[in-house]
Amino acid sequence: MITSQKWRSSPRAALTATAAILAAGITVATSAPLVVAAPASAQQRISQFDSIRIPAGSVIPVSYEKDKIVVTPDETAPLTLTVARDIRTAQGRVLIPAGSQIVGELRPVKRGNQVGTQFVATELIVSRRQRYRIDGNSGVITRTERVQKGAGTGSIASGAALGAAAAAALAGVTGDKAIATEEVLGGAGIGALAGVLLGRRSVDVIVIRPEQDLSVRLRSDIVLR
């Protein structure tokens, strides 16, 4: 949807109105217009030095190098995601290119008797010279799987990125030391933790599908320059 109106202010004021742009490929959780169109004369003056605002409520699709991530319900783990596709204005201008990075961490969430995990985004890295502080998060993931003592980790750990606590818990319960060879988030060692957890009869872990579960919804505007 594009909303336009006759502007009585200067071209510069009209240019400022383009700060309400929402790129094709991101969504917003309000009924506000997706694009506020400025007159052609103002649009022609947009340059790399102007600012464009991506508003709170916009959703940025993400991807990750692994098909899944496994953490324990009480674990905090560092995580860097990749912007899955170009975020563009309605006119086709790229605001956030695919391949940009979103830095943050997985944090435990408890709501009543329900526990889960949530990605909290703190920084957007477009290039070495373009880094922005951001405030965004994913939905809360509560999907868990229980691994019993003596059971193999099977499909849970295979090819997954593991939080250090999850890796330690799985190794402690199953006795499968090969888990240490899997990718552990943050590069943390699991040897000491596995020793502490050795002897547990079962462990619950949260299994995250990044592309399905971790799209980032902005909690505040991003102003791109």
Can I get a quick summary?
It is built from 6 helices and 18 strands.
Please describe what this structure looks like.
The strands form 5 sheets. The chain has a 7-stranded antiparallel sheet, with no helix packed on it. The chain has a 5-stranded mixed sheet with strand order 13-16-6-14-15. Helix 4 (164-174) packs across helix 5 (191-197). It has a domain at 2-54. It is of the alpha+beta class. A hairpin with a 5-residue loop joins strand 8 and strand 9. The protein is built from 6 helices and 18 strands. It has helices at residues 11-17, 40-43, 154-157, 164-174, 191-197, 210-213, and strands at 2-3, 35-36, 52-54, 59-60, 62-63, 69-71, 77-83, 87-88, 94-96, 101-111, 114-127, 130-137, 144-148, 161-162, 183-184, 202-208, 216-218, 222-224. The chain is elongated and about 60 Å long.
- Can you count the beta strands? 18
What value does the average pLDDT take? 75
Overall shape: it is elongated
Total DSSP helices = 6
The level of helicity is 10-25%
Please summarize the sheet with the most strands. Answer: 7 strands, antiparallel
Jot down its keywords.
about 220 residues, alpha+beta, seven-stranded antiparallel β-sheet, five-stranded mixed β-sheet, elongated, disordered N terminus
Write the SSE topology:
Blueprint: E1 2-3, H1 11-17, E2 35-36, H2 40-43, E3 52-54, E4 59-60, E5 62-63, E6 69-71, E7 77-83, E8 87-88, E9 94-96, E10 101-111, E11 114-127, E12 130-137, E13 144-148, H3 154-157, E14 161-162, H4 164-174, E15 183-184, H5 191-197, E16 202-208, H6 210-213, E17 216-218, E18 222-224
Parallel strand pairs: 1-2, 6-14, 14-15
Antiparallel strand pairs: 3-18, 4-17, 5-7, 6-16, 7-10, 8-9, 10-11, 11-12, 12-17, 13-16
Helix pairs in contact: 4-5
